[in-house]
Amino acid sequence: MTELTTRASSINRALDQIGDKWCLLILQEVFWGIHSFGGILQETGISRGVLSDRLKWLQDHDCLRRRGGARHPTYHLTRKSVDLYHNALMAVVWEDRYYDTPDIQAVRLVHRNCGKAFVPRMDCSHCHQAVDGRAVRYQPGPGATRDVRDKKVRRRSSLSADAVPSERHVYRNLVNLVGDRWTANVIALALHGLHRFDEFHRELPVATNILSDRMRFLVEQGIFEQRPYQQRPLRHEYHLTDKGWDLFPWFLTLLQWGDRWCDSSGAGHPMALTHTTCERPLTGQVVCDQCGEEVRAHEVDFTIQGMSPSSAAGG
Ligand SMILES: [Zn+2]
Ligand SMILES: [Zn+2]
Q: How far away, in angstroms, is 237 Cα from ligand 1 center?
C-alpha cells in the first residue's frame, strides 16, 4: 500500500481538519449562535448520522467543546475555532463581492472602537497596504517537509450547497468551492503560481479524471480562465481570474490558522511568505476599512434584519 503524502502545507493541514463542507457549515452555525444538535440539524439540513460524525470529528480536533448533559448537549467554540473568525469574515467579503446574497446585504458590521459600519480588509501588518495574492513570494520554511495524509477522501456531497436550508448560510458559494478537498488544493496551488494540468497532478495524488472534473468545475465557477499554450494538440493553462485571486485573503487566514494550530510536527512553518510590495515577511491582518485597526471578534457588533443586535462569535 502506497502512502499518501503531499508537500507540507498549513493550508492542507487546516483543510484536512475543518475544510469538509459539513464541518464548515457546522462551524458557521455555531459562529452565529446556534448551539444545539437540533438547531444545527435544522439550519444545515445535514442528516443526523453525518452531523453526529462531524460533531465528533470537530471535538476530536479541539474545534468544538460539548457542554451540558447527555440529553441536551450544546456545542461551543474553542480558542482554536474562535481563531477562525478572520477566516469567516474574509469568506463573507468574497461572497458579497461576487454573488447576490441578500442575507449578507442585510448584515451590518459595526466596529465598536470607531463606531462606524465597516467592511473587513486584509492588510499587510508591516506596510499596512491591502494584500493582493499577486504580490506574494513563497519560499520553503523550516517545516518544509512532506505530510502523510489521511487517505479517506471526503467526497463532495450530492446535496448542493444551494439546497442547504439555512437562512444564515452566508457563504454557500465559497463552501461549495472549498468544501471539496481537491478543489481547495488546486486553488491553493494556483495561488502559488501553478498553471498546467501536469503541474497540479504532480502535486496531488489524485486520479486524472477526478482532477479534470475539478478543473472543469473551477472554470465553470469563474475561478480559472483557460489560455491555450499549445496548438497541436490543443492544450490550455489555467489562470486565476480576479475572482480567483480574491480568494487569497481567505486562504491566507486559513494558512496562518494552520501555522498556529495544525503543526503537530513542531518543525515550524512549512512556507515563508514575503510581501513583495514592502519586501517584508507577510503576516496578513484583518482590519476595519474605516479606522485601519485590527478587527477582533468581541469588538464587532452585527445587526441582521429581523434579529436583535448581538456580538459575533459569542459563546
Ligand atoms: Zn507589506
Ligand atoms: Zn474601525
A: 30
Identify whether 42 is part of a domain. yes
List, in sequence order, every residue forming a beta bridge with 286; answer none if it has no partner. Answer: 122
Grid cell for residue 282: 507577510
Amino acid of residue 32: W
**Is 57 within a domain?**
yes
The whole domain housing 103 covers 5-309
Structural domains of the chain, count: 1
- Half-sphere exposure for 152 (CA within 13 Å, toward CB): 3
Total Cβ atoms within 10 A of residue 254: 27
Assigned domain for 314 exists: no
> Which pTM does this prediction carry?
0.90
**Does residue 100 sit within a domain?**
yes
* Residues whose Cβ atom is located within 5 A of ion ligand 1: 124, 126-127, 275, 277-278
- Residue 168 CA to residue 95 CA, distance in Å, equals 13
CA of 282 to the centre of ligand 1 (A): 6
State pLDDT tens for residues 67-108.
Answer: 988 888 999 999 999 999 999 999 989 998 999 877 777 778
Query: Rounded to the nearest whole angstrom, what is the distance from the C-alpha of residue 99 to the centroid of ligand 1?
Result: 29
